[in-house]
Structure formats: C-alpha cells, structure tokens
TrEMBL record, chains A, B:
Similarity field: Belongs to the acyl-CoA oxidase family.
Residues in Acyl-CoA oxidase C-terminal domain copies: 521-663
Listed EC numbers: 1.3.3.6
Cofactor(s) this protein requires: FAD
Key words, A-Z: FAD, Fatty acid metabolism, Flavoprotein, Lipid metabolism, Oxidoreductase, Peroxisome
Pfam families in the cross-refs: ACOX, ACOX_C_alpha1, Acyl-CoA_dh_M, Acyl-CoA_dh_N
Name listed for the protein in its UniProt record: acyl-CoA oxidase
UniProt lineage: Bacteria, Bacillati, Actinomycetota, Actinomycetes, Micrococcales
Domain Acyl-CoA dehydrogenase/oxidase N-terminal: 76-156
Source organism of the structure: Pseudoclavibacter endophyticus
Length: 712, 712
C-alpha cells in the first residue's frame, strides 16, 4: 500500500458499498422507533430519584435565572434561592448522619448536577457553600468540627468562602503564600497575607455574603513549614463588616455566574483558636508540636486535596447537562425550521442538511458518551466516599478519571453551546433561547476546580508513571514484551473502568476493511492503540534523557508538553468510548440498542476522524480505508437523523427545564401558518406571478408563435 | 515509502536536524529585536490616518463599555454615544459629497473597525445606522433619496432600522415574505406583513429608537412579483409611538450587544409614497409599470445585495481587531505571570511553557495573516466602491473574497478570545479583563451579515462554477490538461489577490525534505494543491450525476455539503496565506522581515498541521515528513517566543484601548513583590524551613552519624 497513491473518489466509493451493506435488522430499524421512556430510565442512572427530585425543584420559576438583572440584583436573588435550597433540606444529602445528613455521596452529586438548568449561579454558589466550604469542614475536619460548624453551614446561617486560590497562585496550590503560624503563647493560629499576590481571590461568598472562610495556608509551627492546611476563619460580623484584620475586594462583573459574589480576601495577623485547624490530616499539640497520620508531606498534601475531587466529578455531569439541554433545544428547532428551497420548490428542514446533521448529531453522540462515562465516574466516586471501595489505588484512579473526564466534558459543553447557538442563527443569540446565557456561565467550568490543561497534564504524567512502572527491574527483552503486551491493559485497569473484554486477535494490524470500522473491537483497537503508542513515544524520549541532568530531563518533558496533553485527551476519549460500549452491553437486543450502537459508532468514528492524521502517520489505517471514515460518518448521521428528536427526548427535560422560545413548537406553527397562507393564495388565484415565471411563459409563447408561423 | 511503517520518534528526530539548521541570519535574529514602530506603521495600512483618528476617539472613556448596566441603561448610553459620533462628523466619510460626505469608502470602514474596542454595541449600532440603513439609501436609492433622507440619517435625527431579516427567513433573503404592493389609485406602496414568520426580526433600532426603516419586501405591481426591493418606511412618530399599521416587539436580552435595541416589526397595510421605493435597480411609473436597468431578476437581486458587501468587509477587520487586543492582553500577562516551579526552583513564566506558546502564538500568527488579507480586501473594496476598479467581475470577486474572509476571521476571533480567556485562568473570566465581554458581543458576528456556513457554501459554489467553466467545449484530453494545469491559477485569479508568482517546478510531488517545509513555494504548493484537488473531487462527483434528474443532482451536491464547506475554508486560508506572503515581499530585508517570515511559516505550517490527514490521505506528504510538521511548529513557537511582546506591541493598542487590569504590568509588580518578600526573609534567616527540607537534613544527619560510628 503506497501512501503516495491518490485516493480518488472512485476508489473510495468502491468501499462505500461495504458501509452501506446493512447488518441484520438495520432495515427494520429505519421504520422502527427507539423506546424513549426506557432509554430515559437508563440515562437517569443509579441516582434516578435524586435526579428527578432535583429536576422537580428546577421546574420552580423561583429558581430560574432572570437575564436582565444587575449584578447586585442577581446576587440577591441567588442568595434567596440558596436559603430556599437550605430550607428544603435536600442539600444535606452528603453530610454525616451525626449532623442530620444522609452520607449519600453519589445522590448528592447527581442532584446537584441538575441545578445547572435552574441557574448556574445557584448551582455554583451551592457548590461553594456545601461542596467546597462545607465539604472541606467535613473531609478535612474531625467530629468536633462537624458538630461545631456543619449545622450552620447546612442551614445557610453561615455562608462561607472556600479560600484556596490566591491572585498569585491558582492551580499550583502547594505554592500558596498565605501563612498560618502557631503562637504557643496564646494557643492560636495567626493567619497572615504577606503580599498582594497572596490575597485569596475568586472566592464565592467573599465579596458580600460570607461570614466565615476555610482558609488554605502554609502551616508553620516551631519555625517549620508543614505545607498547606485548612483553617476555619470567621471573616465578617453580624453587621456584615469585616472582622479585625480581615479585608477584601469585589471581583466585580464576570463573564457569567454574576449571581455569585466572588471576591478577594486578605488577612493581617488574624488570630483563631488552635482548634480551628481542620486537623484530620495534620495537627499541633498545645505546645506547637506537629503530627500527621501521613508521614510524607507530599502524599499528605495530595490526600487532603483528593478529598475535594467531588467538585470535578460534579462539573463533569453539570457540563453535560447543559450540553444536553442545548442539543435538545437546537435539535427541536432544526427539526422544525426550514430554510432555502429544495429541488421540489419546498423549503428544506434544517436537520435534513448534511452539514446540520454533522454539526448537531456528532455532538449528540459525544453527549451520550460523556453521559455514560459520567455515570461510571459517579459510581466510582460513591464507592470511594461511601467507603465501599475506598483504597488508596481507587482514590488515585478516581482522581485521574475525574481529571480526564472533567476536562473533556467542560470543553464539550462550550463547544456544543456555541455550535447550537450558531446553528439557530440570530434566534440562538437571544437570551430567551439560553445558549449564550449558559455559555457565559459555563465558560469558567473549563478552568475552575483545576485548569483543564493542568488536569490533563496530571493525567498524562500518571500515564507515564504507570508505563514506567512496567519496567522496574526488567531486562531489555522483558521490557519490550511488557511494552507490547500489557501497557494498554494497565492503562485501562488504572482508569477504574472495567474492561470491555474484546479479543485483540490482530492487534496492531492495519484496518483492512471499511466495514470493520463499525465493529467495536476494531474501534477499541484503534483508540487504545493510539493511547498506548503515544505514551510509549513520550516515554522513550524521556528514557533517552536518563542519566542527563535534572534540568535537561525537565527540558525533554517540557518539549513534549503539547504531546502529553494530547495523550491525556486520547486517554479520556477512550474511557468515554469504553463506558458507552459497556452501557450497550447491558441493554436488551432491541431497536433502541441498535440505534444507540450507531450513536456509539458515530462517537468512535468521530474520534478516529478527528485524529485521522495520527492513524495515517503511524500506519494504523491505509489511505484508502481512512478515506472511508468520513463517508461512513456522513452515512451514520443520515441514518440517525430520523431518531434525533427521540434521542434528545430521552434526556427527559421538559419545557420547564429547556425554557427556550424556539423549542416550544412555535417555529413549526409559524412554518405551518406561512405555508397555509401561500397555499390559500394559490387556491384563490391571488398569488402574484413572479417576474421569472412571467418571462418563462413569454418565452414559451414566442417559441409557440414562431413554430406556428413555420407550420403555417 | 510504505505507510504501514511505524514512524518512531527516532526516525523523526533524524529529520529534525534539518529544521534546526539555521538559515543565514537566523542566529543574529535570536539576539536582535524587531522594529516595532516600523512594523506598526505597516500594519496601519492604507487608511492609517482614519484608523488613528478612530483610535483617538476610542480612547475617550465616554465611549467605553460599562459592564454592569441593565439593558435599558446600556441602550441609553449607546444612543448618547451615537449622537456624539454623529456630532463629530467622522461617520460621514463614505457618504456622497452631494450631502457633505467624502466618498472615502476604505477610510470609512478602517475607522469603523476600530470602534469595536470602545464598545461593540456602539460599533454595531453605528453599523446599523450608517452602514446598513444609511448605506441602503445611498446604494439602492438615487439622488433624490440622498437629498431627502441622508442628512437626517447622518445627523442621527432619524435613527433607522435595516429591516431585511424576518423571523422566518434569515440568510435566504430572496424568500422574504413581506410585500410591497403598488396601488395605482393612490400612487402608493402598501407594505404588508402576511403572517408571523414574516415579521422583521433582529433589527437594531427596531425595539426603541428607530423612527424609520428601510424595509425589504417583494415588489408587486400589476399582479406580478418582481422580487425583493427596498422601501423607505417611517415607523414611529416624534413621540416614539408606532405609526398607524406598524407594530413590533423587543428581542430582549442577547448574548451581547445589549446596547442595541434589537427588535421586531410588522406592517399592516402601511402606505408610503411611490417615491419611497429606493429605485436605483428597479422602479415603477405612476401607472405601475415596472422597469429595471438589470434585465435578469436573479442578477438584479444579487446586484442589490452586493452593494451591501461592506458589512462583511468591516466585520472581517473588526473581528481581528478584537482578536489582536485579546492576544495583546493575554501575551502581556503570559509574559509576566509565573506558575509552578521549574527544575531550578524558580517559578516558570507562563509563556515559557511550550503549550502556552502553542496556544497563543499560533493564534497570533493567524491574526497577522487575517490582518494582511483584510488589508487586501479593504483595498479591493475601496477600488470597487470608489469606481476605480468597478467591473462586474471585480464586484463578484470582492463578494467571494469578503464571504470567505469574514467567515474565517469571525470564527478566529471567538476561538482566540476563548483561548486567551482560558490562558489567563480565573482572571480571564473577570469583565475587567475584557475577553468574556468581547466574546459575548462578537459571538453574533459569525452569523450576521450572512451565516458563516451559508457564506462558505456560496464560496464553494463559486469555486465549482469557476472550475466547470474550464470545460466549456473542451474534449476529454483538453479537459484533463486544463484540470491539471490551470485550475489553481484560475481559482486564485478569481480571488482578487495578485498571485504570489512562485515557480511550480515539481507540482504535485511529495515534499521530500523537512527543511523544504519552510520554503514559501512549498507551502504555497501544499495549500493551493489542496484547494484545487478538493474542488476537482467534488466536481467529478457532480460530473458523474450529469444526465440524472434534477433531484438526483441536488442530492449529490447535498451529500458533498460538508466537503464543499471544507473546500471553501481551505480556499480562504490560502488567500490569507497569500496576502501574508505578498506583504512580506514588500518589506526590506531586515530582522523584522525575518521574524515575520517565521510568523508566516507558523501560519502556513499550522494550516498544514490542521489538515495533515488530508495531505497524508492524498499522498502529498510522506508519513516521515508529515511527522516533522508538528515538531517544526514547536521549534517555531519557541523561536518566536522572545519576540511575542514586540509582535503584539506592533498592533499599536495603548492601555486606553486594551483596558485590562492584567495587561497593565500589575502582575509583574505582584511577582516582584512576592519574590522580594521571600528573598528578604531568606536573607534575614526568618524563612521557615519546610518539613521536606527538615526530613532531608535529618536523613543526611543520620547517615553522617552512621558513617561516623563506622569510622570510629
């Protein structure tokens, strides 16, 4: 196979016949419909009741975002909504039973995710209060802290700030500059902000409502810095004024989430009691002697941060909820809206255009994949936090999985919101149709709870570590065996998702048949092989730097940064594909499963199309076969088109959740009215003839006259 | 060359040496700096004075966007700014001398583009008033209309609506449903909205401020529909109330541009005098007899629409102005901000990370390309509208060029704003740093003045038409000759850009040397060959449908819609690359030119990297050579990194234009303060030792003690 051969359309079309050859049952499906109710049940997942309860709340107009408020008004409204949520009690799901909670970690996140369709400001303010501020007290504090602080946090009596990020340090938490120095004489912590860059920044509740904060600071006692720990620090009195030594600033208007009063805080030698150290992972005695159940300062730090993984887990699901709602709106509109006359003179429905199918249905497939992988993530999260599956390895896997999936899904949400916005034209730009509002709010999801690029770099490094662990003590031959045989499995096992379990009979060979691309083992092979090979390539480059100076080694890794991030993305995409495929395995063999299998194929082949250069560059697909990928995608979107509305209906969002003027049937009504008007004019003979038609008639008349003259 | 060969990193690194081999002068440039002032002059282009005058205006705080206004307050503010602009008189540049204008079409657009950095709401409201409403009167009306209407339009005495788009019809203007029926008895036009879908929608000035509108409607006289024409229609009285028969609605809050009162209008048999038809391209006598200087209704329609190309031209430049400002802000911040310690313990400057360079500098290269291609577009626009170069072919080329470039640049702006936002983390999300505000405002630029996808489809169809014209009367052999030899030239000639003039010695051959990728003729060959081949492929598929039914032919084109759009994009990218290369040819052979040549290479190779799958699929690059493209880009961004700040400084925006808190040097100050603080503590011996360091010391101590014990 020579890659200088020009792939002509003719060549390619020979292979297309294969793609068109129906699998058993394909024809029947063209007529059949998916079972929307059954699919909807499946999509609700393990915490169906909590999701439905949250959706019922979201339906309440009191919780809805109102677009044209000033920042001050929006903040007030969100605060009122917070109190409603607190009074409702549903926010207590995750908290300890000792303080009236239910220790239902998965259900808590599932319900939380649904809030995004009320108003993302409410969701994130709730996330700050209960998911960060409250969760820090819960996970980093001990029983006494739970009793002292949690009830008022749960009831919103004490709105609080999660004061981690500083103006000078965001993702690099270990380098925070705020200090908490133990004063033995008073048995107090002295919280201090040494310079402007160490101001706490972007904290929700900081600008206005917060009366306390969990402040992350370098714990210093007896002249030793024991690293970042969390301290409970009151910041405002009952009158709303800062307490002595506390000051701050307002972050002002943002790109969205303006219902949240994000702001800055600084501390000038603020004293808090020794017992305000949240001391689960590190404590001092009255005389200032430090101790920790975790010996290594590095592992201690990551363990503390790891307890806060739920933020990333919840953003993964929330981002997809917004994407799914956007797709439900844009697909409904695309299924009703007509534009430009087709060859029969009738105007074409937008969703009948190939490009419109490409734009919306590929993203719909991704949202399905994100949904299934999120459900896996949520189960793993629940397993770890409920204690059912809580081992250090499970925690580490959970963190890697959450980092990979959150990055991909938050970008997917923005990409989908923007594409839906544009696919609906001017109507898509109006606040009443929600895309732009959700985009502005969700924009920040890509960099908070961990900048996506930083998170992916962590994932990439984890993949490299896993890879290098294969080689401990191995000789060269064994090295190669391990490299060829086991890496992909290790990577997958390390992902926390169970394996798809396919046979890898001719692993590494070129995909020989276009039709094979729709086989899941073939897709799996292509996707997993890419991850494995990319990891290997980087690892080998790094391996060559062994023995060089630390700076040179760092330089080698730095020069592969872009590739490392791409590798981490590829890994995350594989996990999504695998979760989708696992979900299919659980479904009965019916029309719904068949249609969803096409959706999975569209997702898988969409990934292969996106990375086609890699497959060609590395000889994994021949040019001839690669050329069929895009054509097969064109066929898949056409095949899915009749099921598009059903596939978004299965998300289960009602008009009270979508709340978009263009997704109410109004467009279909307008189209019907317009067509009825023209038809009535036509029937009545009052439709003006067009100049064009008149010219055609005149020409025909002239021609007839000439012919008549000739005949005469 | 077998494409099943695995391209190992080792293979690739062999070729990398070629990329690293310096061209004459490369080394010197590493030390030298570009001449920012000289480059800045060049970038100001042909209408430097008008640009600088507009930038001086933009510096006035009265014109600046204020983030936290309600929609009503923002509309009021924008209206006041409009009056200031009108009083200033600068908005009259394009209007006829007969009414006090200057007929300076290029200068008018150049100045208009700069307004985006004041407030895009002001820019677009100005665009509605003078660029659409006023320009329609100017271009579609005749002298009498100019005298009657233009003075009040220019002075803002009559704010007006450009009432083209309807709720039911956006990009498909020919299908508008509003009617203007001539009533011979009263010698009046009767403007009527037949159904809800025919309401005029999204019109600026429609919701509140407009007192007149240019209404596009189907002209009907003597029972014949002569197609869409424009009518001047008063809509509100002095008291602000609708006139009889006029009604409407407010579009409400949008994703941005909330300083503009977009709204809907409908007409119930509203009568206007016969002379209110803007009659340059079609008129009726008192008895209702229609006449037009353009015989064909189709050509007449496109001629009328074509006069309004300036909207697209101006968006191309405006979008890039926003992208350039965003890059200036993000690069300044990236050059000051530090995050995560490097191997020497010092924190690394963001812009020293490969990924950060990749994210920002590739987009910087695109902004340079967009800037140069925009200058070409603006000159062509001025040539046509000043009458200097006004032929039907030039007009048609201008429209194709504007459609291609506007689509690419408006997407580039959104992509760049979002990437800059994320590259600045939480700070990027604050309104005070502008990215999110500009994003919300510019979002709609991708679908107004023509939906980008619809525009690109027009470009694609033009390419096919040009292609098929080669074959008129040609036999099969000649067909092939033409196909192989001339198509690329024809396509380029049709673009209105002068040709780069390279020799195509081994056209179609595989790029044999990695080093050759930096040769402009090689880049040209790769980019232009791709356009040519993609056009050919679609044309051949369509050719095979010859003789089939109209519906089948339409189906073939429909099945290639996605590829046609990709082809149009490739064409636009080639035009951008060519304009950049032409601009380099005009520069003296100095450091600035050398650095800009790297920027051009980064743009060109960036395109080749984006479409690498195509080059591999079609055998235009071998796998081995293709693998070097990404590595060469990594080298280019590293090489450009020291010049990054100079390259954005050359855009010439001062702090009064950028107005971003993070682009004021504040971050550098904070970094300096933090480092000075730590250094002072270190010198004073008060810096707490870390637990980690303490453990290291303890271990060393134990080791020493053991050794001492052994020695003793």
């Amino acid at each position: 196979m020579n890659n200088t051969t020009r792939t002509t359309t003719d060549d390619a079309e020979l292979h297309d016949a294969e793609l068109d050859s129906p699998e058993p049952g394909d024809r029947a499906v063209d007529q059949a419909r998916i079972d929307v109710a059954d699919l909807g049940e499946r999509l609700l997942g393990a915490w169906k009741d909590e999701r439905l309860a949250a959706r019922a709340k979201v339906a309440n107009p009191e919780y809805h975002k109102v677009p044209d408020l000033t920042m001050a008004e929006h903040r007030e409204r969100t605060l009122r909504q917070m109190q409603m949520l607190a009074d409702d009690g549903a926010v207590n799901l995750a908290f300890p039973r000792s303080v009236g909670g239910h220790e239902n970690h998965g259900g808590n996140i599932a319900g939380f995710e649904e809030l995004v369709l009320a108003d993302p400001s409410l969701q994130i303010k709730a996330g700050v209060q209960w998911g960060l501020f409250g969760a820090a007290v819960m996970h980093l504090g001990t029983d006494e802290h739970h009793r002292r602080f949690l009830p008022d946090i749960m009831s919103m009596k004490v709105p609080g700030v999660y004061a981690m990020t500083e103006t000078g340090h965001g993702s690099d938490v270990a380098s925070l500059a705020t200090t908490a120095t133990y004063d033995e004489s008073t048995e107090e912590w002295v919280i201090n902000t040494p310079f402007r860059g160490a101001w706490k920044d972007y904290g929700g509740n900081a600008a206005l409502h917060g009366t306390a904060a969990v402040v992350f600071a370098q714990l210093i006692t007896k002249g030793v810095n024991h690293g970042v720990h969390a301290f409970y620090v009151p910041i405002r009195g009952d009158n709303g004024d800062y307490l002595d030594g506390v000051g701050g600033d307002d972050d002002g208007v943002k790109g969205g989430l303006n219902g949240i009063d994000n702001g800055r805080l600084h501390f000038t030698n603020v004293h808090v009691p020794r017992s305000n150290l949240l001391n689960r992972y590190g404590d001092v005695t009255a005389d200032g002697t430090y101790s920790s159940p975790i010996e290594s300062p590095g592992r201690r730090f990551f363990t503390m941060l790891g307890t806060l993984v739920q933020g990333r887990v919840s953003l993964d699901g929330s981002a997809n909820a917004a994407a799914k709602a956007a797709l439900a709106i844009a697909i409904r509109y695309g299924d009703e809206r007509r534009q430009f006359a087709g060859p029969d003179g009738d105007e074409t429905v937008l969703l009948d255009y190939q490009l419109h199918q490409r734009r919306l249905l590929t993203r719909l497939a991704t949202s399905y994949a994100v949904g299934f992988s999120h459900e896996s993530l949520l189960r793993q999260f629940h397993g770890v936090f409920s204690g059912e599956l809580d081992t250090p390895e499970q925690r580490e896997d959970l963190e890697t999985l959450a980092a990979a999936l959150k990055s991909l899904s938050t970008w997917h949400a923005l990409d989908t919101l923007q594409e839906c916005r544009e696919a609906c034209g001017g109507a898509g730009y109006l606040a009443e149709n929600r895309f732009t509002q959700l985009y502005g709010d969700l924009d920040i999801y890509t960099t908070f709870e961990g900048d996506n690029h930083v998170l992916l770099q962590l994932v990439g490094k984890r993949l490299l570590t896993d890879y290098s662990e294969q080689f401990r003590g191995a000789d060269a031959r064994k090295t190669v065996q391990i490299m060829v045989g086991k890496v992909a499995l290790r990577i997958l096992a390390g992902s926390g998702l169970r394996q798809a379990g396919q046979a890898f009979a001719d692993f590494g060979s070129i995909a020989r048949s276009a039709g094979r691309l729709r086989r899941p083992d073939e897709q799996y092979e292509l996707l997993s092989d890419r991850v494995r090979t990319m990891v290997e390539d980087i690892a080998m480059s790094i391996g060559r730097a062994r023995g060089k100076s630390k700076a040179e080694q760092a330089d080698v890794l730095a020069r592969h940064q872009h590739r490392l991030i791409e590798t981490a993305k590829a890994h995350g995409e594989l996990l999504q594909w695998e979760a989708f495929t696992n979900a299919l395995a659980d479904m009965p063999d019916d029309t719904t499963k068949r249609v969803l299998t096409w959706v999975r194929d569209l997702f898988g082949l969409g990934l292969i199309e996106q990375h086609l250069d890699w497959y060609l560059l590395n000889g994994r697909l021949s040019a001839q076969r690669a050329a069929t990928v895009s054509r097969y995608i064109d066929r898949l979107v056409a095949r899915l088109r009749p099921h598009a509305q059903d596939l978004v209906d299965a998300f289960g969002y009602g008009p009270e959740h979508l709340r978009a003027a263009i997704a109410t049937g109004a467009e279909a009504e307008r189209q019907d009215e317009a067509r009825a008007y023209v038809e009535a004019q036509r029937r009545a003979g009052t439709l003006p003839v067009t100049e064009k038609e008149l010219r055609r008639r005149a020409e025909a008349e002239t021609k007839r006259a000439k012919e008549a003259a000739v005949t005469a």
